[in-house]
Every structure is written in C-alpha cells, then in structure tokens.
Amino acid sequence: MLVTIAPQVRLFVDIEGCGLVPDGPQMRQKPTLILLHGGPGFDHTSFKPLFSQLADVAQIVYVDHRGHGRSSASAPGTWTLDTFADDVVRLCDALGIERPIVLGQSFGGFVAQRYLARHPGHPARVVLSSTSPRMALERKLAMFEQLGGPEARSAAESFWLQPGEATWAEYERLCRPHYNRTRPTSTDASRRAHFTPEILFTWSSREMPAMDLRPGLANVRCPVLVMAGGRDPVTPLADALDIAAAIPAPWGRLVTFPDAGHGAWRDDPAPAMAALREFISAVG
Length: 284
Prior knowledge:
Number of strands: 10
Distance between the termini: 30 Å
Order of helices and strands: EEEEEEHEHEHHHHEHEHH
Radius of gyration: 18 Å
CATH superfamily of the largest domain: Alpha/Beta hydrolase fold, catalytic domain
Number of domains: 2
Shape: globular
Largest sheet: 8 strands, mixed
Number of helices: 9
Helix content: 25-40%
Strand order of the largest sheet: 1-2-6-5-7-8-9-10
Structural class: alpha/beta
C-alpha cells in the first residue's frame, strides 16, 4: 500500500503479522520492526522472504525509501539523509507507530544512524547492519583487492570516485559478486527488485564523500545492535568497529560474523537471525 507522509510524498509500505496477538486472557502488543533497505536506489524486496520468520516476535513493516522502488517519485533535492531519516518519523506518525525497532541495512544503516542523531528519543531499539559511518574508501579498496584482486580494486575505486552508468557496469561485474560468499541459485531476487540508478549515482556523488555520522551517534539513548561480517568489502568490519566505538555506554553492542559478507543473514542466516530474534525479544 501507499502511505502519504507529507504533501505529494507517498511511501510504499507492506506490513506482515499482527500487532496485537491473543496471550491467555489478554491481548499482547508485539513490537514493530521497521526495515530500512540498502542502496541507495534499491528497494525493500531483499528482506523477503527471510525476514518473515521474525513475524512471530514482531510486526514487520517493509518500506521503500522516498523515491525508491514502489514509492512515489521525488525530487533529487530531497535525496538526503536528513530527509530519509525524518521520513521514518513521518511514517510512524502516519501509521500510529510508537517506539519502533528500526533496522537499517547498508545505506539503510546510514539513514538509521542519522535518525538516531536527529530523533534519539523516538526508537525503542535500533539495528545497524553492514553499514558505515563514513566513506573510508581505502578500507573498501583493500577488501575488494583481498577478495577479488587488482581488477576488483580498480573497479571499486573508479565507481566510488566517479559514480555513474559506465563505472557501475564494471563495479557490478567485478565487485558485487564479492559482497557475499553465498551466491544466489537464481536471478529471481535481482529481477524482483526495483532499481533506480539515478538515486545511487546522485547521492553517492553528492552526500557520501563527506559523510561522517560518528558525531551524531553520541546522541544514542536506546539499545543499538551493530552487526558486521568479517568478509564484507563494501562496509568493512573496521567501519562497524568505528560505529560501536562512537555509541556511548551502555547502549551499543557489536556482534560479528567472521565468515559473512554484506548482510550477515545472507551467508550465515541461522546465527544472524538468532541474534536479531534475541535483540527484538529483549524489548521490555
């Protein structure tokens, strides 16, 4: 469904599971888990169907960021972390969601970090998965070279220094296969996704190079689970360590998956989903 969050701004939202469930003589309120997808330029479909297994402990809200996927088109001037972060609050206001658990994967983690900085009292909990607080290009290049050799390093350097259609084609061919050690058995997932490359190229050229989200993490006032894979080339483990170090005690918890890549649940689904289930269920 499309949910209006501001004049002429509608976000695509899909909701899985009941919020209120029978529990003996009463109805129990489950927490609401809002999933912020990666990209920029991609959509929420990468969370499906795996995240359905969490519907017994949370009501799951899948959402396409402003201008992404099945959401309404938006002006490039609104493709900023501040806007995307504020959209989380706008969406919650529109749907009547209070104290959500917000999970940000990759670019969604950038949005979630800015959301924590701008609205520290809004979430009950936050998950920052396979994400970074800043560009730290050399770390990416070193990991791509480790996993894919000099060609992968060169393609990564070309794309991140000059995002565009030509450099993206080489990046997709030489770099994206190294995001995860587990390769999909078919192309169905990528064919299901809605990809808007203009958002990727515009945002990566404009806001990402100078991005530094670490100062804003000092505002954290809720539990934050940081998840990272040891074989992740695009948001390397060192980036997660920076995030964890920037979160004030006692709020941050870092969980690493040494043999996993980008999105630990893609390579190690059982332990990654178990960590999420434990974190979600701990909400009091």
